[in-house]
Amino acid sequence: MNKAELFSQIQKKSSFLCVGLDADIQKIPAHLKSEKDPIFTFCKEIIEQTADFAVAYKPNIAFFEALGPQGWETLQKVNELIPKDIFTIADAKRGDIGNTSKLYAKAFFEKMDFDSVTVAPYMGVDSVTPFLEFENKWVILLALTSNAGSMDFQLIKDETGKPMYQSVLEKSQQWGNSDNMMYVVGATRGELIGEVRKVVPDHFFLVPGVGAQGGSLADVAKYGMNSSCGLLVNSSRGIIYASQDENFGKSARSEAQKLQEEMSSLLDTYL
Ligand SMILES: O=c1ccn([C@@H]2O[C@H](COP(=O)(O)O)[C@@H](O)[C@H]2O)c(=O)[nH]1
Question: Which GO biological process entries does UniProt record here (predicted)?
Answer without folding.
Answer: 'de novo' pyrimidine nucleobase biosynthetic process; 'de novo' UMP biosynthetic process
